[in-house]
Amino acid sequence: MFPALSHCLARILRLALILCLALRVLLITPLANASNQLTIEQLTPLLPKGSQAALWVSDTQHTQPQLSQQVDALLPPASTQKLLTGLAARLYLPSTFRFSTRLVQAGDDIALIFNGDPLLTRQDIRQLLSQLPRRGLDNINNVYLDGQAFAGRPRAPGWPWDILAVCYSAPSTAITLDHNCVQGAIYSQPDHALTRVHVPRHQPISVTSNARAVTEDQQIAGHCGLDLTATADNQYHFSGCLAHRDRPLPLNFAVQTPSAYVKAVVANELARLKVRINGHILVAPAPSQHRELARHHSKPLASLLTTMLKDSDNLIADNLLKALGRRYFQQPGSYRNGVAAVKAILQNEGIDLSSAILVDGSGLSRNNRLSARQLASVVHYISTHPELGLVNMLSTAGINGTLKYRQSVRHAPIKGRLKAKSGSLYGSFNLAGY
What we know:
alpha/beta, Beta-lactamase, D-tyrosyl-trna(Tyr) Deacylase, Chain: A, 4-stranded mixed sheet
C-alpha cells in the first residue's frame, strides 16, 4: 500500500522530471484519493523549457489512466524496452531454456558451435577444450568457430557511434565470450606528460595512448577531453587529455570483433593444453557430419532475465532477442526477425505494438520509438500475470539494481516501495513500474 501516494508521486516527478524528460510511465497501485491527485498543470512547470513528457498513471485493475499526458506520442524508450524483450522471452521460451556452447569432432577436425551465450567465459571455453587431451586428441587439423546461430548486423541501426568502444555497447554475436568486454586501466600522474594504459596480457587486444596527463584547469582551459577510437581488429587508441588522478581510471572496452577475440583465446588455450593445430582456426560453419564431445549450458532463463532487468544488461537483451527470432522463425536470429517475433508474441496477448518502432532488444538504439500507452500495456500485463515472475526481477528503489542509487527514488518514502525498470539515453529519462 502507498499511504501517502500523492506525496510519493510528487517526489518522484519533482526529482526526476526536472531532468530533460522524454518518456516516463508509472503504473502504481493503488492511487491516492481523487481529491489528493496531482494535476498535469501542477507538474509541467517543473520541466525545463523545450522538454517533452509522456505520462501514464493507473492502478493495476484498470487499463485506462487516471493521470496522463501525451500517451500516444512515440518517444525513445531506452532500456524500458527490455520489459518487452523480457515479457516475450518469458512467454515464448520454455522455462528450461538455456544457451548452449558445444564442442564437436569431425575426423581430425574439431569445432566450437556457439549459440550466443552472453555469459560464456574463458574458463568455460577452457573446460570444453580440456576434453581434447582427455580423449587423446592432442594433434588436430582445423578448428572451426561456428556462429551460424545469428545472422546480420552485430549492432542495431541507431546505436550511438561515439559509445561503440565501451562495454554497454558490446556487439550482439553468436560467438560471444567474456560478455564481449575487456577490462583495463589508464593512469594519469603529475610526473608523466602522457597517460599510460594497462590491459592484462591474457586479453588479446591492443591499446595505445598519446593522451596527455594534465591538471583539471588545463583540461578545462584547453577544452580537451579523453577520446577513444577502436578498429575492427580490436585495436584501441586514446587521445586528448585526462586530468591527474591518484588512482587509475578503470576501463571497459567493448570487443569490436568477437570472433577475432575468441580465435586468439582458443589458440592460447589449445597451446596451454599442449594440443597441436596442424591446420588453421577458422571462423566458419562446423562440418556437417560430427559427433559431440562436450557441451556447456548457460544459466537458466529466469536468471538471465533477472540480470537483464535488474542490471539493465544490453548484451543479454539483444542476444535473447535474436534467440527469440531464431526459434520463432526457424532461421538464424537477427535484430530484424527478433523484433518481429517480439511484436507477434505480444500481439497474441493483446498488446498492440503495430505503430511502435523497434530495432533491438536492449533499447540502446535511438531509432526505437514507443508510446506511454504501449509501455503501460506491457507493465499492466506483467502485473496481472504474477506467475511469470517478472515483477520480482525488477529493481527495487533504493535497494538494488539500476534503482539503488537513482536520486529521484532512492529515499523515503519511495525507497523499497517502487519496483520498476529505468531507462536513459542522452536527453531521455524513463521509468516504468509499480
